[in-house]
Amino acid sequence: MAENVKPRVRVPRTASAGEVITLKALISHKMESGQRKDGDGNTIPRSIINRFTCDFNGENIIDATFGGAVSTNPFMEFEAKVPESGTFLFTWYDDDGSVYEESKEIAVS
Amino acid sequence: MKITRRETLMLAMGAAAAAMIPSAASGAAIDDAIALFTGGATPGEGGVTLVAPEIAENGNTVPIEVSAPGAVAIAVFAQKNPLPDVASFKFGPLAGAQRAATRIRLSGTQDIVVVAQMADGSFVQTSQEVKVTIGGCGG
Fold first, then answer.
1. The complex's ipTM?
2. Which end of chain B offers a freer environment for a tag, N or C, measured as fewer CB atoms within 10 Å?
3. What is the C-alpha separation between B100 and A23, in angstroms, rounded?
4. Whole-prediction pTM value?
5. With an 8 Å Cβ cutoff, are B137 and A33 in contact?
6. Distance between alpha carbon B9 and the CA centroid of its chain, in Å?
7. Chain A (30-49) residues lying within 8 Å, Cβ to Cβ, of chain B
8. Residues B50-72: pLDDT tens digits?
9. What is the pLDDT of residues B3-60, one digit of tens each?
10. CATH number given to B5-132
11. What is the dotted CATH code of the domain comprising A6-32+47-103?
12. Contacts (Cβ under 8 Å, ≥6 apart) of A42
């Protein structure tokens, strides 16, 4: 698999120290649930993003586990506390072993 | 062969019992999934909220939002999906709030159950019914 997998994240550019900000992360992925059948009645094997994590300067914010019931192009919205300037690291883990990463800087004043 | 009234009744009861087995089985599947998350503890009430639409036209993308202040983890279950485990979220030290929103698939009208594990190790749960017009399993 792994065709056209494109992560997209939304992070504010700046924040004040200790502020709670909302982060949004989406990755384009077909999220084949493993429940569907093709035209010949054969089950289409599962191929999903099974885990998503977000860290800030090495400290964890959220660690999500996805099952087959998470929609195509899995979307996550959550909140983070930012104590200082740094980098958000978003990581998606595919069933096929691929790991997709995206990082975003934030300036804290 | 002559079918007596008694045999007809027995047949009807057998058919009714057979029809009930799948629903009973899917009910047990969600109980097992929740027990796996809670380690067998019975969840209490309150302290966890689920925001989901009352009616979802398309079961392929149903937006949900869960929050439980003070929770360390939140798990989402769908009662009648072929696999009741939908997603679970663990919150790290930098989580600004114990809140997460995502989009899920629902196979049909059913209850969504959300169980949160609190910092003291106790569990709380809430549930809401979502009516689904078109199921999202591609059956």
1. 0.88
2. N
3. 10
4. 0.83
5. yes
6. 35
7. 33, 35-37
8. 999 999 989 999 999 999 999 99
9. 677 777 676 666 665 555 544 555 678 888 999 999 988 999 989 999 999 999 899 9
10. 2.60.40.2470
11. 2.60.40.10
12. none
